[in-house]
Design a protein that fits this description.
The complex is a heterodimer of chains A (about 270) and B (about 400). Chain A is of the alpha/beta class and about 270 residues long. Helix content of chain A is about 40%, strand content about 25%.
Chain lengths: ~270, ~400
Amino acid sequence: MEDMYHADRATSTMQDIKISAKNVQVHYGDTHAIKDVNVEIADKTVTAFIGPSGCGKSTFLRCINRMNDTIDICRVAGDILIDGEDIYDPKVDPVQLRAKVGMVFQKPNPFPKSIYDNVAYGPKIHGLARNKAELDEIVEKSLRKAALWNEAKDRLDAPGTGLSGGQQQRLCIARAIATAPEVLLMDEPCSALDPIATAQVEELIDELRQSYSVVIVTHSMQQAARVSQKTAFFHLGNLVEYDDTDKIFTNPEDSRTESYISGRIG
Amino acid sequence: MQSLTLSFLVIFALAIVGYVVARSRALYVADGDIRRLVSLPSQHALNVAMSTAIPPLAAILIFSLYARLTDGQVSWLAGFVFIALAVTGFALSMIGIKRETRARNLAERWIMGLLIFASTIAIMTTVGIVFSMLFETRNFFSQYDWRSFFFSTSWSPNFRGDSALGILPLLWGTLYVSLIALIFAVPIGLFAAIYLSEYAGPRLRSVAKPAIEVLAGIPTIVYGLFALFIVGPGLRDYFAAPMGLGDSALSVMTAGLVMGIMLIPFVSSLSDDIINAVPQAMRDGSLGLGATRSETIRQVVIPAALPGIIGAVLLAASRAIGETMIVVLGAGAAARLSLNPFEAMTTVTVKIVSQLTGDTDFASPETLVAFALGLTLFVITLGLNVLALYIVRKYREQYE
């Protein structure tokens, strides 16, 4: 009894809370897109958001790096804390925040620049390298982490748009890693990729867990089961259930979760 | 004249009659049931009408080009041939109306012929213009030394036979005025486009964009008046005279500024469309990396839109080089080689006009020089276009 208690405590301190959302509400004009969402996302963990289309999972993801600020009609209420700091505090610069909370989009969107310039874009903007040699190092490290170095090292000057879809998406991941973020948000990163590229990106996501807190939105429940340790199920703007991935997929508490994962709704 | 008019009337009447008759004939061969026909009656009708009208009309066109039909004289024989062609086409296509005739495809072929004809006219006109200019330019150079035309720095035509017809002062004026106009118009137009497409809200945009485009609808003569009465004296009184740069109301600066205003809507409207065509995913990608809006525009949006923007600037440049009215009223008609932008100068186009107006003898070098000037201008704009195409191809950052 005593031992189990200690074991539990040990896991909870090992998995620090990275992001914590309290009573988050999002309105798009008159639409109430996110209703009262509370969630705590652990560091060095892959957290998956699943749910039917239009359930608000992408909207919530975009709250975490304040990308919703770029949409005029979008209003966010409630608190989102990263490392205990409110990111919607007026003192916080959303531009700086987005360097700390990287994002990978649904469709690979490399800039129409060379592979090197794509990766160097963030570090250059934020002044992360003192000289060319350091920048080269950052680019190489990021490409290595994104498992793209071996394919790209001989053609760093070739345009990023010339890569295949899966390579482009890994380039976008490398680009996001290059700014040394603490959190990586991925909005359906594999939905435009074929199964082989998807497998590569999933493998990559699992490796990224060593260094970052990864939040991934996905339509594929198999993918959520494969890559994530925690899963959140969204439905109609509500966070219905949030628990260990194993538990969600084997023994969900809410009947809606069960209906969704067994294919009866959504 | 009469026979040509008569031929036209007969051909058109026959085509209309053919249309009506072909309809009923098609129905007749199908025993009144159009489901038995491969093509609809109206398609048969269209085919007959076009088979009747197009061959004789084409013949008239070729004949008149060939005979240099300037006074409209056509012999009765020619008129007879045209009508005979129409009748033949009418008869042949009428006989061709059977149940299994594919009139739809035949009509399609006539229509394609018409479209090819239209595009050929556009191309042939350009070629014709170039050739006529080449021809007259050769005439000019047989009377006037080409070296003094291209390299002489003085322009003073007279009718005593010892004119100096050097293009350099005119070319300099053209380039100087255009350069000032572009320096003025490109940044303002581009920044306006960036503001409208990236920052302005939809409501402001819906008002501001048409308002800027109104500028493009003002006739250039009105801009010229504006230059003559407001900008010219204003520049002289507030800039040129106090700085001791001259006391002329007509100046390169006046024409350049006003021309720049004229060009703003070209640059801004085209650039705006091009910037809007850059996918939102590019902006999201950059913003998501923690770039600010202006960093995103500078480093991602503009490079992606660059080929189009260069195209817009080039279009503005060719407008500037070809512009005449604003220059006459803003910069004057004095050919001069000078660096002072507050002095009166003139351009190639203005001189083309002044060499061709008034009492002129069309064989003298003073008149023929207009063609040489025009051809030079044409070659310059052509060169600019080729250069722009090359730059665009080489430096384009292509997005999907």
